[in-house]
Amino acid sequence: MTTATPPASPQQAKEKITQIRTLPKPIRWLPGAITTVLMLMTLDYLFNIGWLTVVTGLETQFYYAVVALLLPLVYLLWPISAAAQERPVPWYDYLLSAITLVVGGYFVYYADSILQRGWAFAAPDTAVVASYAYWLLIIEAARRAGGWPIAIIVSCFSLYPLVADIVPGPIQAFPSSLEETAMYHTMSTESIMGVPLQAFAGLVIGFLVFGVVLQKSGGGKFFINLAFALLGHVRGGPAKVSIFSSGLMGSMSGSVISNVLTTGVLSIPAMRRIGMGRSFSGGVEACASTGGVLMPPVMGATAFVMAMFLDVPYSAVALAAVIPSVLYFLGLFIQIDAYAARHDIKGLPVVELPSLWQTLKEGWYFIFVFALLVWMLLVMQREAVAPFYATALLLVLNQFSRHNRWGFKELGETLSSAAKLFAELIAILAGVGMLVGALSMTGLSGTIANDFIHIAGGSVPLLLIMGALTSFVLGIGMTVTAAYIFLAVALAPALIQGGGLDPMAVHMFILYWGMLSFITPPVALGAFAAATVAGARPMATGLQAMRLGSVIYFIPFLFVLNPALIMQGEPLQIGLVFVQALVGIVLFASAMQGYLIGVGRLGVGALYEIVVRGLVLVAGLLFALPGGGMVPLSQVELFGFALAALVPAVLLARWSQRHAQPRAVSMPPTVDP
């Protein structure tokens, strides 16, 4: 029997996953104050109030002000190295924070001159020096908040214009001097102040605030209690609770790690109680939390950046994500149900579960606020201001709750938590902006698509495989948002122009494959966070998550081949394709666990099981695959082949069940206590 480390508390888990240090008492108020100022600025800008026109009068001035406000905080919260996390803030970090504030303030003050006089191409000497300083400060901030991989990638690409004329042929472009590059990065609207930052300032801030307020006001506890009341008693109940609660919570918080630490600390111990192993429990939570970020109405920062790139309302992105997210959660649900049925894992006793009526009575307003947010997003299409209305309503209603009412302490903690989230994201987005800026400055963004098409020999399937692998590899080394932004500029045009694919499907494809790094070793951050909570081995948890979330590896190919799965098409066509995909996902997920509803165990005995599960797996893929187009078979032919695989598999499974020797019920593995 393998021993495992004891599960961690939420705070211990958070400390292991993040390197954020605790500020000394004299400045512990600073993050909350910064959040307050940022909220006032954002509200003044979005609602055009006119109280703070000194920093919101110009659009670019507001963007500069957001960076100038948040970036200095990075140097106070993130130490220069992990080893320095427990030490007090050193003098050089105070100095770097102050320099960052001064340099950022310089650009805020001269925002009008930058715009009116074209400083991005010809600036005074002082502005050039400030540009050099900001360039270096942003790269270091990105390193501290996002890690070495993103810092190295951003550094190399930000310097690319200097050597663009001497690099190999396919990526050769027009060169620029060091001074020209620095000016373009800091003072154009295509680099640091480009699409990523514009999406953050115009859309993301409100949703991040909503997610933090939701967590701090007891939303996580409400959703998990609601899930336990509804599903806790069924077979494998706590694992199904994890899907339901993490899906709902993740769809509003937009963060995989926060999701794991919010709902996982309750669902993982419950899964352990009914006999599920540590790594399996962690894998379930990691998959559920990852899927939550892909589920509307709030899908994390990347979805908002996607809306900006596609020049569509965010509601269009959210609507397109509905069916893929449903398919993913269905596949996860079927796998858990099959695992529980095969190993005879029951649910929790009803007497131990929370009352559905009492749960709704205490937290009904969370559902009401959720409904308001969805209505404003999808019906009114007011995505920029919707989260602020929802947050305001949540704060008001929360004060009437005896259980979740806030005091000054809770308010301070919420403001401080939001500031840390803002600072981390602004450092990464500002850094990634330079990556996009370098491609724009050299003109490579307009030609790299042709290079990808040339490398793939014009083959659309090969382009898709290249896109999937590139998205996954970049998702390992960078944040999902950073990987998406790079590929949206470099690879998406190749898939759209060279493959004639739907733009929304292509961008969603890149997003999904970038998200896979959260559950796929070697850098499965979501799985490793869940392993920390469960006290399991990280790599074992990552492998379990990879198996449980296996449907997500081919769902992106389905909606790229048939955009009806992302709501692009006639209602009848969308309905038919959806049902077809549902059948395929059920069969695929059942084959992964070796149990099919209505049939039972898929083969008794090693040989029978390999054959039957293989046939059901093939049948599932054939059912889900859309016929025609790039697929050389018609839909009727695919159905015929699917049935030709499924019918013998079912008959063989039944035959092996009847002729097998009586044996004890298979119990859950005991190697992972």
TrEMBL record:
It is a multi-pass membrane protein. It comes from the Bacteria. The chain crosses the membrane at residues 29-50, 62-80, 92-111, 117-138, 150-171, 191-213, 243-266, 287-310, 316-341, 362-378, 384-400, 421-440, 452-474, 481-498, 510-536, 548-566, 572-598, 610-632, 638-655. Residues 134-568 form the TRAP C4-dicarboxylate transport system permease DctM subunit domain. Its main location: membrane. It is found in: Cell inner membrane. GO terms for cellular component: plasma membrane. Keywords: Cell inner membrane, Cell membrane, Membrane, Transmembrane, Transmembrane helix, Transport. The keyword tRNA-binding does not apply. GO terms for molecular function: transmembrane transporter activity. InterPro entries: DctM, TRAP_DctM-Dct_fused. Part of the tripartite ATP-independent periplasmic (TRAP) transport system. PANTHER family: BLL3936 PROTEIN (PTHR43849:SF2). This is TRAP transporter, 4TM/12TM fusion protein. It comes from Franzmannia pantelleriensis. The lineage of its organism: Bacteria, Pseudomonadati, Pseudomonadota, Gammaproteobacteria, Oceanospirillales.
